[in-house]
């Protein structure tokens, strides 16, 4: 009791001495530093018609993975099998001699080599005539005539080898095919859709918007725009982020814009106000597509997809989670689309060490949080809660303490949201309390720990939340607090933990599995104020 009240009222300190190396990394963490870290990691690794009328909305028996996979230092999806690689190389040597002898034989060999390469990178595809996966970024130039500046920019970012999703999705999109892709959080999907778009667009043009990327949240749209701009350095391409002022004041007929990145709501506003012409759009990417297909965004997506009326448009869907329902919708409106899955569909990142912590009650959660901070606060730490009210409450509890906390939720004005993200990125805030507004897509460098203070409301929320850690092959940690109210869904999380190689107590595995429904129970407010005081205040 004494111990808990110490944690409850004692406040928390980040032990800078104890965590000096981490702290230094965190403090000095710049994007460039990070890409260098990435390099090391990757180097270490071996190498319509129907649509016009439709409201455009666009199976799984999992094999348990053996748990003897190589730990962290890399996703399974980044892993390569040396044997397979050697075999592939030997065969490649033999084949060169045979090419002229028998074209049919060569075709079969090519198919075999592609299959081998896909196996090596855990790439699963379905569809007809799927182009071979990339062997290297250099192939972009030999096979597809990619301009030197793109390769230069990839190299400058420290991207030496394509990630598995990049190996397969880039050639698919470059061959003019539509595609829906599911690859783990932090596995490089952004480059996988921006890079082929730039190669296909070839040259900047003054002829209006030619590519659109939709993201479900402003922060993610801004991040994608920033990443895109890194890839167009040295060219005259214009990538624009749809901001509120742009919607209000810009004259899109005069504005140079090759690629437009927006949330569905902002783009819909511009379309409805007849401010923007999307009839020349050649590429449409729906990032975090399953989120975009949620009921609340469907009308906006429908409006955008209809406005992109170019009959030869290439559409693609990317996400780390792809429910069967979204796949079905996608199939029904896309043409001859290729399906690419890296690893297994809808699974949590294998580079994140996941833990479940029973906190008993809401008060218990706060105690557990303070206790874990007091014992070892290893920033940056991202804490997810289920609502903006709870984000504010938790922030109020932690702000006076010594842990430099920030908060982000949808009630904050855009500037403050931006600030919260920037300060966290810059290491000025050690802890960021957030709702699910930033659960998807956000690429914070080197988050050490994600804490699900409130149990996630769905399997996909769990996957995306914990996927803010353990990105690009780095290791990370995720702690999920649960109370009695969450026990019915415990088994669901436990299953995901098991299938990504984490240990789960056997009693949890013997619980009944319950079908997820949005799980957002009413929770007691977050406060350490003694109940008597609170009542006094209420009176
Ligand atoms: N080929 C590469 N080599 C090394 N690092 C890469 C490569 N491609 C992308 N990255 C880095 O990997 C990180 C994750 O990339 P990205 O944000 O695109 O992941 P994602 O798959 O879209 O994740 P999420 O599902 O969470 O949106 C980024 O920091 C990015 O810079």
TrEMBL record:
Residues 139-167 form the DEAD-box RNA helicase Q domain. Keywords: ATP-binding, Helicase, Hydrolase, Nucleotide-binding, RNA-binding. It comes from the Eukaryota. The keyword Nucleus does not apply. It is an enzyme of class 3 (hydrolase). GO terms for molecular function: ATP binding; hydrolase activity; RNA binding; RNA helicase activity. Gene3D superfamilies: P-loop containing nucleotide triphosphate hydrolases. Residues 515-539 are annotated as: Disordered. One of its GO terms (biological process) is maturation of SSU-rRNA. Its EC number is 3.6.4.13. Residues 170-340 form the Helicase ATP-binding domain. It catalyses: ATP + H2O = ADP + phosphate + H(+). InterPro entries: DDX52/Rok1_DEADc, DEAD/DEAH_box_helicase_dom, DEAD_box_RNA_helicase, Helicase_ATP-bd, Helicase_C-like, P-loop_NTPase, RNA_helicase_DEAD_Q_motif. CDD domains: DEADc_DDX52, SF2_C_DEAD. A motif (Q motif) lies at residues 139-167. GO terms for cellular component: cytosol. Residues 368-512 form the Helicase C-terminal domain. Belongs to the DEAD box helicase family. DDX52/ROK1 subfamily. This is RNA helicase. It comes from Arabidopsis lyrata subsp. lyrata (Lyre-leaved rock-cress).
């Amino acid at each position: 009791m004494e111990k808990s009240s110490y944690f409850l009222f004692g406040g928390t300190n980040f032990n800078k001495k104890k965590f000096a190396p981490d702290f230094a990394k965190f403090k000095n963490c710049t994007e460039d530093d990070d890409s260098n870290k990435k390099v090391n990691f990757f180097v270490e690794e071996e190498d319509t018609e129907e649509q016009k009328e439709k409201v455009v909305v666009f199976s799984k028996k999992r094999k348990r993975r053996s748990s003897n996979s190589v730990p962290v230092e890399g996703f399974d999806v980044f892993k390569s099998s040396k044997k397979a690689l050697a075999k592939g190389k030997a065969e490649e040597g033999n084949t060169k001699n045979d090419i002229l002898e028998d074209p049919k034989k060569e075709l079969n060999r090519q198919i075999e080599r592609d299959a081998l390469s896909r196996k090596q990178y855990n790439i699963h595809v379905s569809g007809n005539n799927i182009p071979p996966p990339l062997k290297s970024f250099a192939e972009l130039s030999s096979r597809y005539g990619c301009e030197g500046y793109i390769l230069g920019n990839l190299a400058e970012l420290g991207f030496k080898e394509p990630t598995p999703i990049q190996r397969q999705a880039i050639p698919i999109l470059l061959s003019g095919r539509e595609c829906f892709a599911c690859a783990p959080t932090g596995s490089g999907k952004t480059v996988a859709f921006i890079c082929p778009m730039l190669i296909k667009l070839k040259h900047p043009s003054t002829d209006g918007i030619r590519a659109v990327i939709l993201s479900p949240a402003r922060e993610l749209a801004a991040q994608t725009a920033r990443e895109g701009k890194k890839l167009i350095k040295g060219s005259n391409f214009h990538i624009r982020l749809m901001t509120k002022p742009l919607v209000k004041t810009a004259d899109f007929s005069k504005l140079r814009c090759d690629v437009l990145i927006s949330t569905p709501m902002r783009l819909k506003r511009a379309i409805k106000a007849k401010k923007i012409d999307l009839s020349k759009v050649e590429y449409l990417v729906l990032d975090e597509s399953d989120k975009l297909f949620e009921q609340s965004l469907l009308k906006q997506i429908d409006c955008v997809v209809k406005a992109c009326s170019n009959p030869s448009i290439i559409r693609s869907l990317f996400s780390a989670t792809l429910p069967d329902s979204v796949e079905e919708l996608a199939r029904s409106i896309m043409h001859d689309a290729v399906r690419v899955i890296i690893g297994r569909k809808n699974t949590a990142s294998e580079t994140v060490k996941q833990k479940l912590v029973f906190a008993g009650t809401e008060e218990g959660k706060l105690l557990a949080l303070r206790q874990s901070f007091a014992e070892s606060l290893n920033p940056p730490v991202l804490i997810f809660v289920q609502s903006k009210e709870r984000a504010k409450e938790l922030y109020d509890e932690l702000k006076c303490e010594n842990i430099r906390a920030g908060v982000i939720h949808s009630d904050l004005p855009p500037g403050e949201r931006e600030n919260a993200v920037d300060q966290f990125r810059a290491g000025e805030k050690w802890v960021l309390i957030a709702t699910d507004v930033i659960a998807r897509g956000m690429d914070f460098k080197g988050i050490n720990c994600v804490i699900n203070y409130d149990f996630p409301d769905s399997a996909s929320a769990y996957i995306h939340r914990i996927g803010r850690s353990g990105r690009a092959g780095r290791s990370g940690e995720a702690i999920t607090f649960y109370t009695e109210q969450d026990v019915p869904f415990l088994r669901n999380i436990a299953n995901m933990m098991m299938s990504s190689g984490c240990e789960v107590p056997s009693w949890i595995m013997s619980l009944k599995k319950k079908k997820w429904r949005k799980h957002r129970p009413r929770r007691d407010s977050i406060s350490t104020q003694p109940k008597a005081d609170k009542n006094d205040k209420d009176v």
